[in-house]
Structures are given as C-alpha cells and as structure tokens.
C-alpha cells in the first residue's frame, strides 16, 4: 500500500468528520476499521460514504469501483477490535476531552505498539490527549477540514512529545491521501486555520456591534473588495453558530487573546444556529437549505478591507515569529482551508505592511483591545523598510520589482503596473518644469513595455502634490510664465492622451498643479484625508496647468467657479460628491484599492482601452457629429484587433477570453 508500512487504519468516531476521514483513507487503498458506539450510527455512516463515493464516481473522480472501496471499510462498535493490527489511528469522536482521553487510553492498550495515534480535534491540546497514552512520541494532531473528501488541507500538529518521525510519517501519509499537509510546530489553540478565521470573524463582529455597520454590507465588502468566496457572517452561518461559538470559547480559554462576539452568543441563545436551523445571521428557506445571500456588485465598496484583514495579518506575524508555522504553510492553509484566493502574506505585501500596522494601531486605540497591538514582527519590518511589494520585500521578496530613480520622481515598475512617485516629500512634492519633464520621460520609458498595462501617479510622504513651486513665480516675466505653463500643458496632455490608463492615487494634498496632474489622469482614487483645491487666486494668479478647463469638464461651471474664485480646499468626500474623484478610501487602504483597479484594468484588452480612452477624450472636445464619427472610426479599429475577435468568440463559447494585446 504505502512504503510507510501503513496498511490498516482505525477511524474512531463515524460522525460528520469520522465517516469522511474513513472514506478518504479507503479511497487511497487503506483498509479501514471504522468504529462508533452503535450499529445504527455505523450503518448511517456507510450509507453516507456510499452516497459520497457514488457522487465522486459519477464525476469520474474514482480510479476504481464504489464496491471495491466500500469493501475496505470494516465497522465495529468495539475499540479493542477497531485497533487490532492497525498501523495508524485517527480519532474523530465529539470534542470532549474526557471522552477522547478514555478512548485513547483504551486504544493504547489494544493497538500494536508501533501504531501512530492521531486526533482530528480542533479544540483540545494534542499534548494533553497524548498524555492519556503510553505512546506520546507517536501521537500527533491530524485536523481534516469539513468535508474531508473535498477539502485538500490537513493541519498536522506537533504535541510536546511528538517525534520528528511521527510528524514526517503523518506528512507523507497525508500526501498519499492526496491531501496537502501543513505542519503546526507548536500545539497552539486553533492551530492555523481557526486562528486566522476567527481573527477575521471577530473583527467583522466588532465592526457590526460597535460601529453599527450592516452585516450584509460587511459580507458584500468581503466578496466584492477582498474577493473572498463567502462573506464572514455567511461563513459563520455555514459552519454553524453553535460550533463557531464553541471553537472560539475553547480557543480563548486556552489563551487565544480575543473578545467574544455578543451577536453570536445572542443568536445561539435564541436557537438560531445558522444554515442548519434555517436562520442565523441570514434567513434560509428551511433548516439545512443554504441559499447564498444576495449582494449587489457596488455594495460594501466604501468599507475598509485592510481593517477587516489586519488582525489576521497580525496573527500571521505571531504564528511566524513564534515558529508555529512557516509563511508558506500559513498561505497554503488559508487558500486550501478557507478557499481564500490569496495567501495572507500575499495580501499583506500587496496592501503594504505599514498600512497594516496603521490599521492595527487605529483599531487598538479605538477599542483598547490588547489583541490589536501590532506584532513586533510587523513593526520591525516597517522599521527596516520591508513594506511589501512597493519596497521589493515584505513577507516575501519581489525581485521582479524594478526601481528607476530620477531627481524629482521615482519610477517603480511592478507589472502589470508602473508607479510614478512624485518624490520631494519635504516640499510636498511641488511641481517644477524638471518634474514635469521627468513625468513625461517616465511615461515614455514604459510606453512600449508590454508588461506595463496601467500607470499610477502618486506622491511620497503626506502629499500628492502641493502645486507648482511658488518660488518660480517670484520676479518671473510674462513670457517665462507663458512658456512654463505650456510646459505643464504638454505634461498633462501626455498623461491624458497616454496609450494606457493612468490612475491618480491621491494620497494627501492635491492642490494647484497637484490637482491639475490628478485631473489629467483617467481615474482618481483619493485617501479620505486628502484635500483638493485650486488655491491660485490667493497668490494673485490663476490656475495654469489646465485647472480652469479640466475642472469644468469633471464637474460643472458653477462648482469650478466656486473652487477657483474662492481658492478654498475641499475634502476628498466633497470632491467625490462633485465628481472630481472616483472613489474615496481610508488612507491605509489606498494602495490596496489602487492595486485592485490596476488588476481590473490589466485584465481588459489594452488596445481596446486605448481606443475607448481616445474616443472619450477627443470626442469630448469635438462637436457631436465629429465625435460620433470619431467613435465609429475607432470602433472599426477596435474590431480589427485580435482581442476583439477573441472577446466575441469567448462570449459565444461561454468561456473567459484570453486577451493578448494584439
Ligand atoms: N511651492 C513651494 N513650496 C511649497 C509649496 C509650493 N506650492 N507648497 C508647500 N511648500 C513647502 C512649504 O513652504 C514648506 O517648506 P519649508 O518646510 O521649507 O517651510 C513645505 O513645503 C511644507 O509645507 P507646509 O506649508 O509647511 O505644510 P502644511 O501642511 O502646513 O500646509 C499646504 C500644506 C498645501 C496647505 C500649504 O503648503 C500650501 O498652501 N501650499 C501652497 C499651495 C499652493 O498655493 N499651490 C498652488 C501654487 S500655484
């Protein structure tokens, strides 16, 4: 069967997990002794296994017949009989320490001395259970996910006495079962998956209870912004609210620092247990009848994704720093155990570790909860400048990220995006003719780079750009200023008519020339603390880099006159209301939001985006008959691309298109 010398396996407990685990072993060719307390439970388990195998067989996922697999499962109600001649044992009886210990004690008496014992517990310390046996070094945690035949992940937990051999054998055995093992090197409550899961859930719960954010909006954000397959509360309903509460309590009793969720306790006390009882956070058509809660695509977009995930990233840092698990294994755990589309370290590196620390600090200050204290691993990374992708290194290294330094800006090429970073933070990134030239040069330098599909312009430090350097206006001649303004116009036109989409990531002040640069971009995403305005009149001058024209195009004459004639600065939220920016997000979520836009735009056919941009921009300035004629012509150009043929064909063939940019 296997070169591990494992042929016969006992599975103790034939309930939800036990029967699934027995099925997994039998499918991989092991002889399985399945034990439970009554013949009826065992009969029921065999029926469920057969049903599941038949489903798998219909989908062509079995290498042999259902009967052949079933013939390897032997049932008994006696521990002594179940463990005779076995090489490996998995215990999956109810989560009660005394019950588990008494079963292990009995199994220990009758099982051959070489047999390894594993517990599928999710809440009881492996060390404590192992102490009920005389084979502590041959005792290990082996936590399958529900349902075992479908879920790939198995958490293998080392107890205090577990030998390396036992861990290695269990890891190899897990691979033979066609599962993915992750090793949990210390017997911590909740292992990896539950620790991460409940960090997210408890923060969602805090936001719902303390801030009154609607549950459905938080779930919408998890799906629409984070791209998670299920919302947090939806998942709790799915797991079962009583089960979830039980796990959280068991974890906190054993030292997992967390505040409980009053919403969860309240629902459980009312018998609302989630999908299984027909109602939990959501209502279902009937007990056990799961229907996915409906969320609209635009729902939850204003909520803070970084804050929801930051406690889980803090947990990642703790697990890594304590040597409980590797970054790779933790990423694997959330991808395979929770079906997240990304690993936690990937998320943290993309969002920016400084932003995660910022979110945690805010949470800690607002709640006073100790569990939100940023882990030293994260704060040290920030001190070292290990901020994630943007610095080329975070939890992981990004050798593909390239930095090009100019005098007043920096260019970071991080395919599919290139970031132009206005880089004079001490002077709030003031605009000079030199900076304008460097922006143009940077844009041109990546124009023909097919890896770069979107350009982002942002500022370093606390400002996007505080406008033209006022020093240049002192004693300037009219002709000098005419030329300088023409210079700025070339730069903004270069941005506006660039062949790829350009996003302004407005991280702070965008005033004067700063707002004028942002307005030349295609999309503007602003941090909620950003201030925008055209303050030139306060200096006795008027906007000169397109402000009098582009503001009217984004808003209207009235708003433009209000802003330009008063020179006042407005908040990002007000700018959103006027249509000057597309989105406003919390400061620490700006990079994540911009990256989301980058990914979305980069998934579209690039030539088509260019043509659409030209149809809009040139058309806007032309009489409608000319603009429509231009649109028709560009439509003709669009249809000539390979991507258009592919897009249309893929739609008709009901598949995702593969765009090549041709
Ligand atoms: N030109 C030259 N220097 C500028 C500048 C500009 N447009 N905007 C900011 N700075 C400099 C400041 O002089 C200061 O330099 P210092 O540290 O050597 O004194 C530094 O940048 C930081 O600015 P500061 O004014 O101290 O920051 P703040 O947070 O108090 O105020 C602003 C921020 C944006 C409100 C303020 O700097 C401002 O009003 N700037 C001018 C904006 C403007 O009129 N732009 C249009 C120009 S046409």
Short description:
This protein is an alpha/beta fold. The chain starts with 7 loop residues before the first strand and ends in a 10-residue tail after the last helix.
Instruction: Give the CA-CA distance, first to last residue.
Output: 52 Å
Q: Find the structural class using helix and strand composition.
A: alpha/beta
- Strand line-up in the sheet with most strands: 3-2-1-4-5-6-7-8
Radius of gyration: 30 Å
Instruction: Report mean pLDDT, rounded to a whole number.
Output: 95
Strand content: 5-15%
What's the count of strands? Answer: 19
Main pleated sheet = 8 strands, mixed
Uncertain parts: none
Coarse morphology = elongated
- Please give the count of helices: 27
* Ligands (ions, cofactors included): coenzyme A
Helicity range: 40-55%
Descriptive report:
The model has no long low-confidence stretch (mean pLDDT 95). 47% of the residues are buried. The strands form 3 sheets. The protein has an 8-stranded mixed β-sheet with strand order 3-2-1-4-5-6-7-8, with helices on both faces. Strands 9-10-11-12-14-16-19 form a 7-stranded mixed β-sheet, sandwiched between helices. Strands 13-15-17-18 form a 4-stranded mixed β-sheet. Strand 1, helix 1 (16-27) and strand 2 (31-35) form a beta-alpha-beta unit. 47% of the residues lie in helices and 13% in strands. Bound molecules: coenzyme A.
